[in-house]
Amino acid sequence: MLSEKRDDLYDNTTVDPVYHAKARVLNTAIQDIGMGRYQYYLFVCAGFGWFADSVWPLITGLILAPVIAEFKFNGPFLSFAANVGLLIGAIVWGVGSDVWGRKWSFNVTLLIAGVFGLSAGGSPNFITLASLLAVVGVGVGGNMPVDSAVFLDLIPASHQYLLTVMSLFWSLGQLLISLLAWPLIANFSCSPSASICSRADNMGWRYLLFILGALTLILSFIRFFAFNLLESPRFLVGIGKDQGAVDVIHQIAAYNSTTTTLSVEDLICVEKRATEDSSAMRPMLSKTSIFTSAHVNALFATRKMAISTSLLITVWGIIGLASTLYNSFLPFLLASRGAQFNDGSLYLTYRNQVILSVVGVPGAFLAGWAVEVPYLGRKGTLAISSGLTGAFLFASTTARSSKQLLGWNCGYVFFSNIMYGVLYAISPETFPAKDRGTGNALVSTATRVFGVIAPVIALYANLETSVPVYISGALIIFAGLLALLLPFEPRGKASM
User: Fold this and answer.
1) What is the rounded distance in angstroms from the CA atom of residue 194 to the CA atom of residue 65?
2) Count of alpha carbons within 13 Å of 70, Cβ hemisphere only?
């Protein structure tokens, strides 16, 4: 079945005209093949990356209380170590996917997270735990930059909205980790009043790491052994491998039990035409594994591209700071505020975390619908969801009981999941495929840098007051307003 045709997001004055011409041919071929079995399998396997990007950054907040009780350290240092790893992973795997391709990055990131996550459960001290979780972050940090690029490169333009719906895996990851943490940490942790906390009395957080590490390993094995990821055809034409790109299109068609008429001659023909129409030299991605500045330069090559890239980096950085500052210490905040309301037990704290995770799941579906609504699109959905996320954060400071606090946080989680679903989609949709990994790396680096800064702020901030909440809410609302200034709206357009 043929899918609807869509206009290009860019014209040939925004990106290299030869690349633009070839990308149009590839987009048409993928569109004519339609959404089939291969793309649905890819949706699930790429969703594993969203799942990992959800559970592992959250783990430091969920295990913080019992780990502090056992190892006696200043809590924000654990989040700091994990975020340093996430920062390194975003840079290495994002940029690397534009140099050596998507396939190896796609398969290796989850493997690293699974191996070192499983090992972290056996940590004898804080230094070992922090170091292992940092390495987990190196693997997890590459998932969003690589997986979103892989998915967009291989699906029809008419189904790009599924990249927003993929945040469902992020929400399910939150739900699963909360369901696991609730009984494990509530029942297998030291008493909050205990002066000495031994390993034998505090196994809950270790069980949690063992389970998540093993599950991540299983997901990586499914990716590697049960699904054959094909290289991005747009990446291949970017390094001069036109025949390889055509072969990939034909393999997808065969897997979907259909056919395509695409040939190398089609690509050669449009290249000649574009070359005749433009005196610009054709930029190459890289034919070696050498990192260069070419991909970064391409994202700032024109005024419109420079504005778009700069705004996306700013929005990601602001939301990264605000959300990390709040989310990393949410269980602590729930427990400390709950203690003020005489119901701050571990059981109630983690029960509330489960409730919050359940509330977030419908947000993925609402986001997928909203981004396709005319006059709303990606930018409008991102702005509105960011504004409401910040508003519910402000409202949470008015809570005078644990139930009120839980209610306000339900609103925050629901709209923040929509916000993240759109944010994770609009960035890769906006960047051209030949530089998409690098663009994703830049925005991810921005949010990871501020993710590193957030625990440092927490070291010197008074978490017993509402100041961090006010700061987080104001920053998120501001980021939503900036989103309205983005020059490109991907709704109804084919990503290039």
Assistant:
1) 13
2) 24
The residue count for the chain: 496
CA distances to 47, 191, 338, 406 from 264, in Å: 32, 68, 65, 58
DSSP 7: E
Angle at the Cα of 155 (from 153 to 158), degrees rounded to 5? 120
Helix/strand/coil for 285: coil
Full pLDDT tens readout for the chain, 496 residues: 334 556 666 665 666 778 778 888 898 899 999 999 999 999 999 999 999 998 998 888 888 888 988 988 887 788 888 889 998 998 888 888 878 778 888 889 999 999 999 999 999 999 999 999 999 999 999 888 888 888 988 999 889 899 999 989 988 998 899 889 888 988 898 876 677 888 888 899 999 999 999 999 999 999 999 998 998 888 888 788 899 999 999 999 999 999 999 999 998 888 888 776 655 444 433 343 344 577 788 888 888 889 999 999 999 999 988 887 776 555 555 555 554 555 556 677 778 888 888 888 898 889 999 999 988 999 999 999 999 999 998 888 787 777 888 888 899 889 999 998 999 889 888 888 778 888 888 888 888 887 777 767 766 666 566 667 778 889 999 999 999 999 888 887 877 6
Tell me, what amino acid is at 91? I
Task: With CA atoms as reference, report the closest residue to 30 among 268, 265, 264, 256.
Answer: 256
* Calpha distance 270→200 (Å, rounded): 68
Calculate the alpha carbon distances from 198 to 126, 131, 133, 202, 209 in Å. 14, 21, 21, 6, 18
CA dihedral 359, 360, 364, 369 (to 10 degrees): 50
CATH architecture of the domain 35-226+293-494 equals Up-down Bundle (1.20)
At residue 336, what are phi and psi to the nearest 5 degrees? -70, -40
Tell me the pTM: 0.83
Dihedral (CA of 27, 32, 34, 36) sign:
negative
> Which residues are bridge partners to 291 per DSSP?
none
Q: Can you read off the two tokens belonging to residue 374?
A: 């005319």
Query: Tokens 């939150």 map to which residue?
Result: 174
What one-character DSSP code corresponds to residue 485? T
Within 10 angstroms of residue 216's Cβ, the number of other Cβ atoms is 27
Which DSSP symbol is given to 8? E
User: CA-CA distance, 199 to 123, in Å (whole number)?
Assistant: 10
CA distance 301 to 16: 10
How far is the C-alpha of 142 from the C-alpha of 129, rounded, in Å?
A: 21
User: How far is Cα 438 from Cα 83, in angstroms, rounded to an integer?
Assistant: 19
Residue 376 CA to residue 393 CA, distance in Å, equals 24
**b/e per residue, 30-64, with b = 16+ CB within 10 A?**
bbbbbbbebbeebbebbbbbbbbbbbbbbbbbbbb
